Q: What sequence folds into this?
């Protein structure tokens, strides 16, 4: 069985980060090892959330794994707390990366033109250095703008997205993917660039007019799981985009507030069925 290590926070309430990665990747039949970087009462879109930083646990946990000679087929990072934690994650890459290990970095830090409350420009620049070490990165347009220094636009064309992908490629990753890319009215999806082939890849599906928390984490977790199941990265992106859109569609029927996340529990059997 393939084994993925995922490094991100646990937000106890509000379905995101590890509370999505663990069930989704496991459901795809891939062992999911977790390294929690912090415990929060909720994700940071709620008011008055609590946060216990777990940076001091990262090194001892990694040392123990090292002594057990553990192998990871992939390392997937999401929301991290601090600049120092990004350095700790790089050390984990150095310790556990082998030739076959897929390094998948989702530089979670911003959306809709704004950084999340816990972050500043310094953090964004540091995240760019983490992306440099990755095989696949999956920022949204806001995160990519902060990392590349490009202007953030709400209205754009394929030319702007291609420019942004080439600037992401300059950071160093093998495959750069931009998420939340809408190239025509009523559609949304991803656009990617592969360093090795110099090729662009585009996938668009129907845009559902609703925004929920944790959908980026659902997309990334699905993508990581599908690649570990042996899917080509382009097929993994298609499946992850379709599954995320479908789950948003199902969630719209639920009147709960959008920051409580999407009802992936209801759609997981279908994801398993797609394999
Ligand atoms: O879904 C991304 C995410 C993960 N973890 C925490 C967050 C967010 C987004 O706001 O606050 C703690």
A:
């Amino acid at each position: 069985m393939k084994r993925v290590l995922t490094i991100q926070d646990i937000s106890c309430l509000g379905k995101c980060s590890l509370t999505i990665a663990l069930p989704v990747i496991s459901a795809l039949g891939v062992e999911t090892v977790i390294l929690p970087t912090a415990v929060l009462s909720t994700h940071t879109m709620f008011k008055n959330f609590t946060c216990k930083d777990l940076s001091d646990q990262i090194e001892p946990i990694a040392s123990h794994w090292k002594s057990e000679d553990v192998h990871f087929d992939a390392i997937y990072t999401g929301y991290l707390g601090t600049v120092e934690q990004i350095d700790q994650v790089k050390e984990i890459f150095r310790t556990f990366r082998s030739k076959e290990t897929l390094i998948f970095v989702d530089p979670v830090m911003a959306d809709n033109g704004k950084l999340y409350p816990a972050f500043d420009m310094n953090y964004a620049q540091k995240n760019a250095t983490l992306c440099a070490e990755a095989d696949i990165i999956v920022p949204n347009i806001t995160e990519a703008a902060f990392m590349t220094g490009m202007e953030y636009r709400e209205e754009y064309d394929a030319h702007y997205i291609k420019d942004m992908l080439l600037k992401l490629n300059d950071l160093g990753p093998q495959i750069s993917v931009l998420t939340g890319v809408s190239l025509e009215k009523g559609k949304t999806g991803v656009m990617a660039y592969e360093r090795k082939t110099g090729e662009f890849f585009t996938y668009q599906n129907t845009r559902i007019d609703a925004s929920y928390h944790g959908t980026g984490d659902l997309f990334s977790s699905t993508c990581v799981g599908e690649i570990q199941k042996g899917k080509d990265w382009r097929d993994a992106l298609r499946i992850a985009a379709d599954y995320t859109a479908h789950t948003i569609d199902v969630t719209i029927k639920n009147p709960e507030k959008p920051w409580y996340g999407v009802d992936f529990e209801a759609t997981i059997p279908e994801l398993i069925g797609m394999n």
In short: The pocket of PXL is lined by residues 9, 11, 16-17, 40, 43-45, 79, 108, 116, 214, 216-217 (CB under 6 Å). The domain at 3-273 is CATH 3.40.1190.20 (UDP-N-acetylmuramoyl-L-alanine:D-glutamate ligase).
